[in-house]
Design a protein that fits this description.
250 residues, 8 helices, alpha/beta, single chain, Rossmann fold
C-alpha cells in the first residue's frame, strides 16, 4: 500500500451520502490512520474508533478554516455535492444554479483555501475532488449542475498546477451516473458507490490524477474522439418541461 495512505488522516465531506459512506469504508480498508467524516448535518456515529464525525458546511469559508485549524489532515476528499435536476429555463433554476455553485464549486474553493497551507508547509498531501462526467458534457436535464461541475473541473486543474509546486496532489474523479438516492428516479445504467470509492483508493495509491470509474472510462474515450457529437446527443435529451419553458418565453 502506498505511503500516501498508510498512517494518514483523511477528511471526507458529504459523508452521510452513499458515496461518502463507501469512501469511509474503502479508506478504512486501506489502513489509513483515521477518517474524519464531515457533513453539514450530524453524521450518525458508528462503532469504528478510527472514524471521527464533525459537522461542516463546505459553503461556509469560516467553518472550513476552523476545521482546518482543529484537524490535522493529510488528504481531503471533496465529496459534498448537490444536484437540482433542472433545465436552464425551468422554475427555480436560477436559485438552484446558485445553490449548486455554492456547494459544487465554492465548496472546493473554500476547502482548498483552508486546508492547503498546512499541506504546502509539509510539502505533502492530496485533494480528491468528486466531480462528474457532466463536467465534460452538459446534460440538459441537469443543465446548471453540469455547469457547476465544469467550473469545478477547471478549478481542479488550477489547483493541480499551483499545489503541485509544493508536492500536493489534486485528483479529479469523473463518474457517470452513480447508484445513490440522488439518482434513484433515473432508469439508467449506474456505477456503484463501492466502485467509485475503490477507484479513489486506487488513484491515491498510484499516479492517476484523472479517474473515470465504471462506464465513465469508455464514455471519456468516446467524448475525446468527437466532443461535438456528444454535445448534440446530449442536446437531444432536453426534457419536455424545459422545451415547454423555452417555448413559453419565445
Amino acid at each position: 500500500m502506498s505511503s500516501l495512505l498508510e498512517g494518514k488522516t483523511v477528511l471526507v465531506t458529504g459523508a452521510r451520502g452513499g458515496i461518502g459512506q463507501a469512501l469511509v469504508k474503502a479508506l478504512l480498508d486501506a489502513r489509513v490512520a483515521g477518517v474524519i467524516a464531515a457533513d453539514r448535518s450530524p453524521v450518525v456515529a458508528g462503532l469504528d474508533s478510527h472514524v471521527r464525525h464533525i459537522v461542516l458546511d463546505v459553503t461556509d469559508a469560516q467553518a472550513a478554516e476552523k476545521a482546518a485549524a482543529e484537524c490535522r489532515v493529510d488528504i481531503v476528499v471533496n465529496n459534498a455535492g448537490v444536484n437540482g435536476n433542472r433545465g436552464m429555463f425551468e422554475p427555480g433554476a436560477a436559485q438552484q444554479c446558485r445553490s449548486e455553485m455554492e456547494v459544487n464549486y465554492f465548496g472546493l474553493f473554500n476547502m482548498a483555501r483552508a486546508f492547503s497551507p498546512a499541506m504546502k508547509t509539509r510539502r505533502s498531501g492530496a485533494f480528491v475532488n468528486l466531480l462528474s462526467f457532466a463536467a465534460f458534457a452538459n446534460f440538459p436535464s441537469m443543465a446548471t449542475y453540469s455547469a457547476s461541475k465544469a467550473a469545478a473541473r477547471s478549478l481542479t486543474q488550477a489547483l493541480r498546477s499551483e499545489l503541485g509546486l509544493f508536492g500536493v496532489r489534486v485528483i479529479g474523479v469523473y463518474p457517470r451516473m452513480v447508484d445513490t438516492a440522488m439518482s434513484a428516479h433515473l432508469p439508467l445504467e449506474k456505477t456503484s458507490p463501492h466502485e467509485v470509492a475503490q477507484a479513489v483508493v486506487a488513484a491515491l495509491t498510484s499516479e492517476i490524477d484523472d479517474v473515470f470509474p465504471g462506464n465513465a472510462a469508455a464514455s471519456y474515450e468516446s467524448f475525446l474522439r468527437d466532443p461535438i457529437a456528444w454535445e448534440r446527443a446530449c442536446g437531444q435529451r432536453l426534457p419536455r418541461s424545459s422545451l415547454a419553458a423555452v417555448e413559453a418565453r419565445a
